[in-house]
Backbone:
């Protein structure tokens, strides 16, 4: 079945160590995408999603403005971050590996998310859900900013953790076809 991301009930967040002693967390407030979930043959499943870089939100306007500059996301030049899957692999139970191309800051790299598919519900109409997590090196995507603090410690870690929680609704075309069939 084909699904669209319900952005109101979904969340794309990231976390990164700051000054090597604390963690800064942020999210992207604008996201969209579609998925095809084939429960009988997960290899036929796929996902395409994107976030608007300008919507980055770390609960600090000054930091958010800095993240939009050429030190990090360079939002004027690269307004979206995209992910397009190339492989979905069922591991066991509800656990999957979703590999695909992440494009950020003009650089595309293959990454793998550890995902958990939560199945479907029909309480208020068809819904599906999943969570996914991965770690990336921001420097692999050309984000080289990193002030060096005392004792040669970097102010911002290279490793960024990405956490995704998605609630999915049927694609509009399928929802209309299902309604017409009833």
Residues:
């Amino acid at each position: 079945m084909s699904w669209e991301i319900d952005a109101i009930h979904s969340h794309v967040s990231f976390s990164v160590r700051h000054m090597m002693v604390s963690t800064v967390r942020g999210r992207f407030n604008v996201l969209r995408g579609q998925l095809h979930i084939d429960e009988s043959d997960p290899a036929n499943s796929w996902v395409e999603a994107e976030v608007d870089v300008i919507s980055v939100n770390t609960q600090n306007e000054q930091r958010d403005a800095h993240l939009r500059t050429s030190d990090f996301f360079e939002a004027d030049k690269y307004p979206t971050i995209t992910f397009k899957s190339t492989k979905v692999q069922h591991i066991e139970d509800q656990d999957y590996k979703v590999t695909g191309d992440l494009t950020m800051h003009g650089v595309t790299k293959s990454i793998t998310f550890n995902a958990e598919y939560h199945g479907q519900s029909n309480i208020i109409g068809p819904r599906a859900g999943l969570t996914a997590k991965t770690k990336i090196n921001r420097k692999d995507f050309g984000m080289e900013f990193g002030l060096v603090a005392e004792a040669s410690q970097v102010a911002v870690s290279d490793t960024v953790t990405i956490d995704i929680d998605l609630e999915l609704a049927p694609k509009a075309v399928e929802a209309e076809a299902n309604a017409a069939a009833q």
The first strand starts at residue 2 and ends at 5.
